[in-house]
Amino acid sequence: MNVVACVKQIPDPAAPASLDPSTRTLDRSGKLILDDSDSYGVEMALQLAGNVEGSEVTIVSMAPGGETAGLRTALAMGAARAILVSDDALAGSDALSTAKVLAAAIKRAEPDLVIAATESTDGYTGTVPVQVAELLGMPSVTFAKSVVTDGATVKVERQTEAGYDDVESPLPALVTVTAGVVEPRYPSFKGIMAAKSKPVEVLTLADLGIDPAQVGAAGARQEILDVKDAEARGSGEIVVDEGDGAQRIVAFLEQMKVI
Amino acid sequence: MDRIWVLAEAGESGPTPLTLELLTAARSLASTVEAVAWGGDTASLAAPLGEYGATKVYDVGDLGGSLPGAPVASAVAARVLGGDAPDAVLLPASYDGRDVAGRLSAKLDRPVLTNVTGLREADGALVTEHPVFGGTQIASARFTAEGPGLFVIRAKSFTAEPAGGGPAEVVSAPAGDTGATGGAVIRDRHAEAASGPKLDEAAVVVSGGRGLGGADAYALVEELASLLHGAAGASRAIVDAGWVPYSHQVGQTGKTVKPTVYVAAGISGATQHLVGMKGSKNIVAINKDQEAPIFSVADLGIVGDVHKVLPALIEALKQRG
Ligand SMILES: Cc1cc2nc3c(=O)[nH]c(=O)nc-3n(C[C@H](O)[C@H](O)[C@H](O)COP(=O)(O)OP(=O)(O)OC[C@H]3O[C@@H](n4cnc5c(N)ncnc54)[C@H](O)[C@@H]3O)c2cc1C
User: Fold this and answer.
1) Within a domain: residue A159?
2) Of A125, A129, A160, which has the smallest distance from its Cβ to B95's Cβ?
3) Residues of A in contact with B109 (CB under 8 A)
4) Closest by alpha carbon to A83, among A99, A107, A115, A61?
5) Does residue B309 surpass a pLDDT of 80?
6) Percent of chain A scored above 70 by pLDDT?
7) What angle (nearest 5°) sits at the alpha carbon of residue B238, between those of residues B234 and B243?
8) Distance from B1 to chain A by nearest Cα, in Å?
9) Residue B313 at interface with chain A, using a CB cutoff of 8 Å
10) H or E element in which residue A76 lies
11) Which of A214, A234, B171, B321 is most buried, most CB within 10 Å of its CB?
């Protein structure tokens, strides 16, 4: 079974985020790391591949500047190889363009199962995986909280408003997983060393046969008009509990007429 | 704007609140509002959808257990590509709504704007508002290409108001052959036992976070919520940790709540949590760290230990009877 895990490499969320003032898109010029949301997808891919004889996990990513730091993390966790699409013309791509590029790259890995996170930490549009599935002509099951596969079908517990559904789909299929579904392993020292020599194929748009005018800022069909400060909430009363905290809350609730 | 379509989702008892919010928003933006619905009982939706302004319901019909994403997108795309295109399609930011949006976007080769919390018309185009950086800033955006524009809208962005219209006309809009894409099928459904008001409809929400220290302490949150006739919520940290089911999660990837009072106990106030509750009328925060970001949105902040404040608060409320 060929398992593909889609990952995004993002600026460290712990570092303050900012918008590029000229393009009003997220500033991605700093160092990139593996999106924490994707570490669950990588772990899930590895576990599922581990249960089906002869399986392999390929990591697929799109990132500027030939960035591989996050891919190396995924390879160190145990993935066999990675495909990176990197092309200057991709800067400013909207979600659909990103999906087109990823779909073209994923196709090369001839996947039986594609795993992605429900949404990225930095952009969180949450539409890319399903767009990829549609472009690949695959069924998709989003918001998986549990996934099992025998290599022919995939069974998923999918979150719903009320609880969860048992969903079944033939492979090939795409599944998006929520954070916390599995405990991502820490790369071992051996894994980190091995990752250094694992193959990372770096592709350009030309390699994928995609017209640069259709993607990136050139192909984007949406624009950000402005970014303004939201209405700030007036700062309230902050008090240190001296044993009277509960009484203060009671008084507040009375004032708000909820009790 | 001439015509807007709204993806209408049904819950246990008729259209979901978010569906009614979208219909209300659509009415204020377009002269004609039409809905797209699916399931075995679309006829029963004609009245409530009409009451909120839809004149027609395109009925995709019973999906035979398939997940809605592929068949519903296929039905909508068939109409649009057949020449019957609205100016915009509003979709709910729900599990199935997001699936339909992604598939429709790829089928129509149109981008989609997600996490929309505001919509207005300017120069004949729809301009959206999106909270960024935990809702501290609002970005405005619009489509620059040919329509229909696809907009995925977050709950509680608009207030639902009935328009008093008669039942919508039901028009059959079958999905056609979805090929392999429609292969994901629901085999069984599991509902969690729920008591009290729904999280996104309650007037009071009490949420707990990692500061509770352990799963057992969530009982304090539940007890307080019940005493206040409210609902119990949670931060993602404790959902991920398995202390409480996902259905309790408030925030970017969970529910959006706007109660009269929101109580955050042992929650730090990460940006992804704030976007889900910042619209609450009043916010009470209990956190032992004076510097916790939750205090920046709190109307009343108690710097203290949840293990002292919550039991005392529960006791005080019980005394009042
Ligand atoms: C893509 C993405 C989406 C996300 N979506 C969501 C979402 O929808 N909802 C969400 O909530 N989070 C979401 N998060 C996670 C978010 O970033 C935070 O990690 C999470 O909200 C933290 O939860 P917490 O406040 O319970 O835990 P922590 O951040 O660990 O905070 C615990 C707090 O408890 C306080 N505390 C500790 N002990 C006590 C005590 N005895 N008494 C009082 N206070 C105490 C501490 O001072 C601290 O402030 C998302 C993250 C990502 C990357």
Assistant:
1) yes
2) A160
3) 96
4) A61
5) yes
6) 96
7) 100
8) 18
9) yes
10) helix A69-77
11) A214
Q: Would residue A237 count as lying in a domain?
A: no
Q: A250 touching B, CB under 8 A? A: yes
Are the C-beta atoms of B169 and B35 separated by less than 8 Å? no
Cα A82 to Cα A75, A90, A150, A251, distances in angstroms: 8, 19, 24, 59
Q: How many domains does chain A have?
A: 1
Q: Residue B184 and residue B174: Cα distance in Å, rounded? A: 18
Residue B319: CB atoms within 10 A of its CB come to 8
SS3 A168: strand
Q: Indicate the angle between helix axes B95-108 and B69-81, nearest 10 degrees.
A: 40
Torsional sign, CA B91, B95, B100, B101:
positive
Query: What ipTM was assigned to the predicted interfaces of this complex?
Result: 0.92
Read off the tokens for B9: 């989702």
Structural domains of chain B sorted by starting position, each given as residue range(s) with its CATH number in brackets? 3-182 (3.40.50.620), 204-320 (3.40.50.1220)
Within chain B, residue ranges assigned H as helices are 17-29, 46-51, 69-81, 95-108, 218-227, 236-240, 271-277, 306-320
How crowded is residue B14: how many other Cβ atoms within 10 Å of its Cβ? 17
Range of the domain at A7: 2-219
Separation in Å, CA of B309 to nearest CA in chain A: 5
pLDDT at residue A16, rounded to an integer: 67
Burial status of residue B32 (CB atoms within 10 A of its CB: 0-12, 13-18, 19 or more): middle
Q: Does residue A46 form part of some domain? A: yes
- The CATH number assigned to the domain holding A66 equals 3.40.50.620
- Cβ-based contacts of A104 with chain B (< 8 Å): none
Q: Name the pTM for this structure.
A: 0.91
Give the binding-site residues of ligand 1, using a 6 Å CB cut-off: A 36-37, 119, 121, 124; B 209-211, 213, 235-238, 249-254, 266-268, 270, 272-273, 276, 286-289, 292, 305-307
When pLDDT is cut at 50, 70 and 90, the band that residue A11 belongs to is confident
